[in-house]
Amino acid sequence: MKYLLSCINTNWNTGCKGAVLAHRPCSLKVDPQIRVFARLSGCYQSPPIFVFAQDYLEKFYQLPRNRFQSERKNSTSVIMEKLREMQRFFGLNETGKPNQETLEMMQKPRCGVPDSGDFMLTPGNPKWKQTNLTYRIIKYTPQLSEANVETAIQKAFQVWSNVSPLTFTKVSQGEVDIRISFVQGDHGDNSPFDGPNGILAHAFQPGQGIGGDVHFDAEETWTENSSNYNLFLVAAHEVGHSLGLSHSTDPGALMYPNYVFHDPSTYTLPQDDINGIQTIYGKSPSSNPVQPTGPSTPTTCDPRLTFDAIATLRGEILFFKDKYFWRRHPQLPRVELNFISLFWPSLPDGIQAAYEDVDKDLVFLFKGSQYWALSGYDIKQGYPKDISDYSFPSSVQAIDAAVYYRRKTYFFVNDQVWRYDNQRQSMEPGYPKSIASIFPGIESTVDAVFQQNREYYAFDLGAHEVIRVGRSNRWLNCR
């Protein structure tokens, strides 16, 4: 069953009451009993929202399709429990109700493999008996050349062979272990695709017949870059299923079910995925005693947590770390962890400095010798630019931190601070100066204003003194 997500107006509040539908009519087949759940759960959204949530839970969380044949109260309890299970998987508030953040998560493009239960052809934990596996691309997509498709698929397999004893060989005839094809709609495996921007692909566990096979939705737009859906990234995820991996709750893992873009040219398999594949097949038989490691998703309340950059944006506070950033809103208790690439696909990972110019209503982000300007959450045209625009000498090739105060911008570079006059658009005479001379109490380099090592410093720029010191993760509501 397919639903039109554009029928749903995403301007909901954070609870259940008040959710509305767009005025455009939606051609949804509504189960007349769906209103039972609406009444018993205390929510009052129109039926299409519940139908959409019901369909999602049936596909990915084993919600029985005939649940309304049982007693009403029990069936409602099952639906609410499945919603809690889904919310728990994605780290959402476990309300058991299809609130705004839950519905937004359900709308994200993703893999078609369920998040819970067995997506299995055989019992147990399936794995390939052999480590030398073969594959063939049965049907290509016309959106990319065959050579580009083959390169993306080859790189997807290599992601896993780099960290395990597995090898993969493309063959053109005879029996193979893994068959790859681009298909659409109902394609004969009881898992039909739903058209653009929904389920992107799915794969089957190791085994005979259809086991190990990978199917891509031919109606999606497949690319080699950040637009639409990058074939390499989706293929690498699906190959993980072909090798026996299930979905991960780690939002930084390749095996996380929702699609997130990462730069393929610098992609490194995260540690969560390395641990998973090596649990099944063992480590790479390399002569190098040091096994490959990958990046790990930062733990929000890790007492050792440090930030790369911090900036405000129209009342929110953004904390950057590697390829992630946290959003803290003063009116919301929950701090949200996101990928940088999810909001700004053209930005690099590892932002080193950031500040908000409240007079221009712009946020500036720095990495290396380049910087970008954000208007709201949009990158302004004409960026990136070179930091030489700020009158830095050629010896300055990167900035550690920055902060804006009374139309002056303080830039921290190693153990020095520079002060830029934003009105005159020039660096002030007499700078740089040592950080300690301008900010007594902060004796060494600054990671993010005002964070030093694992602690943050509240500094009174008018009085020129440190007024409070605390752990960095207290900004993220950690105690």
Automatic annotation (TrEMBL):
InterPro entries: Hemopexin-like_dom, Hemopexin-like_dom_sf, Hemopexin-like_repeat, Hemopexin_CS, M10A_MMP, MetalloPept_cat_dom_sf, Pept_M10_metallopeptidase, Pept_M10A. Ca(2+) 2 binds at residues 177, 211, 213. Residues 124-283 form the Peptidase metallopeptidase domain. The modification Phosphotyrosine is found at residue 383. Ca(2+) 5 binds at residues 310, 354, 402, 449. Zn(2+) 2 binds at residues 111, 237, 241, 247, 255. Disulfide bonds join 301-478. It is found in: Secreted, Extracellular space, Extracellular matrix. It comes from the Eukaryota. GO terms for molecular function: metalloendopeptidase activity; zinc ion binding. Zn(2+) 1 binds at residues 187, 189, 202, 215. Can bind about 5 Ca(2+) ions per subunit. Ca(2+) 4 binds at residues 308, 447. Ca(2+) 1 binds at residue 220. One of its GO terms (biological process) is proteolysis. SUPFAM superfamilies: Hemopexin-like domain (SSF50923), Metalloproteases ('zincins'), catalytic domain (SSF55486), PGBD-like (SSF47090). One of its GO terms (cellular component) is extracellular matrix. Hemopexin repeats lie at residues 298-347, 348-394, 396-442. The active site is at 238. Belongs to the peptidase M10A family. PANTHER family: MATRIX METALLOPROTEINASE (PTHR10201), NEUTROPHIL COLLAGENASE (PTHR10201:SF137). This is Matrix metallopeptidase 8.
